[in-house]
Structure formats: C-alpha cells, structure tokens
Amino acid sequence: MEKVINKARILIEALPYIKNFSDATFVVKYGGSAMTDEKYKEIFIQDIILLHYVGIKLIIIHGGGDDITLLAEKLGKKPKFIKGHRVTDKEMLEIVEMVLIGKINKDIVKSINNHNIKAIGISGKDANLIVAKKKDKLLGFVGEVKKINPEILKTLEEKNFIPVVAPIGVDEKGQSYNINADLVAGEIAISVKADKLIYITDTNGVKINGNFAESLNIKDINRYIKKKQITGGMLPKIQSAQKAVLNGVKKVHIINGTIEHSLLLEIFTKKGIGTEIVK
Known about the structure:
This protein is an alpha/beta fold. The protein has one domain: Carbamate kinase, CATH 3.40.1160.10. The protein contains 10 helices and 16 strands.
C-alpha cells in the first residue's frame, strides 16, 4: 500500500508543474548515450510522449557524431577534427546528411509515431529553417547559424506535430552545411521564444570546483570559462545556453540522459537532477 501511496504523492508533486507548463514550448537537444543505448532511447521517447500528453509543445534537435564517424570509417574515410569540429569536405558532407537526415532523424520520428503521436522529421534545409554561413575555410562545409526562419515550426505546432530537426543548414546559394546541434538548439529556442531549452547529455550537469552545480547564473559563466572550469564538449552548450537566456529563453537545463526518466525528474520535481542556467 505504501508504494501505491508514494506514487500518488509523486503525481501530486508534479501537479503544479503540469499546470504551469501546459501550452509551454520546450526545445530539447537530444544527444549522448540516450541516443545510442536502446534502453535509454526508449525511456527518452516515453518521457517525450508524456510531456506531449500534458500539453507541452516540443521541438527536438538531434546530433549523431558517433554514427557519422562509424559510417565514414566503414566507407574508408578517416574522420579529421580541428578544435572539436569535424572537417567536412564534399564526401563527408554527404555522409553527414545520410546519417543525420536519412537514418537518425527517421528513427526518432518512427519511435514517436509508434506511440500514436504525430512527429515529423525535417532538416534546416526545409523551408529555409536554418540559414547558414561558412564557419572556417579549414573546416570545409561546417557552418554557423546566420538566421532561423521558424515559420515551419509554428505551422507544425499548430497542427499538433512534434518537429524533429536534423542540424543541417543551407546558405542563400543552396549550399548545405553541417552545424553543431547544440548551437542550432539554442538558436531555435530563441527564435520560437521557448520557455525551456533542455540539453540531454552523458553528464549530471555542469561541474564547477569539482561538484555539479544545481544552478548557474549567466553572469558567472564567462568567469568559469576564463578559469577553464568549463571546457571541451560542455563549452558550446554553455555558450549557447548563455545566449539563449540573454535572448528571452526562460531557463536552460543540462541533464544526464542515462538517468532513467531524467527529463521528467528535471521538469516535474522541485529539486531536479541536473544544472539549470538562469538570468
């Protein structure tokens, strides 16, 4: 009986958050082991389904670096990186598009649709969603976001679809670019005036002075970067989070996708389980 009562208590604890977030817009960047481990993939999809049913509008942006590397190596093409960015020549760009648009995007959409929820896969090339520009000549077809045209996202939202976005952009001449998914998620969150931007990662948040921080104020972020307390793969997430909060996104969350139902625990409990970034 006590176990049943505890379940009821959990639902009651979640009630004010469900009320507050009904009709809110959340942008979720899906990455890390939660994308590659079958167990965590299914749990992530379950969390997305529940969020959808309680009235939260969702936009999912996904990465896929490990799968890109795997296919490139199978095709005899050795990946090369400069400062964490994948050097992307014409052949590598084709591989990136095959993996992101043709495989990962469709797999996520299929998994959501299997729960009788309408999801649709798009890339930044659809309706010029992500207008891009070249980042660095040395990196080839690696881009930066120049502009987001969110009209397609708003149209899909009105029709109760969940958009699943592959981070491929296009410039004014029609040239495609591979873009960091963390940065795309931040720019999309700004463009749709999202209530939350959530990064699904393999870490329990942002580590400061040896401990994971429950909350970070954006005014402290530059100091932590200067002290090299925030480095590596966390850097683009933090910089994107900082920009998002400065431009109207209410909160950014960085959570561990290998904790079961981390998405629900972060959103529907008082303490949460990751790091929230606030103004």
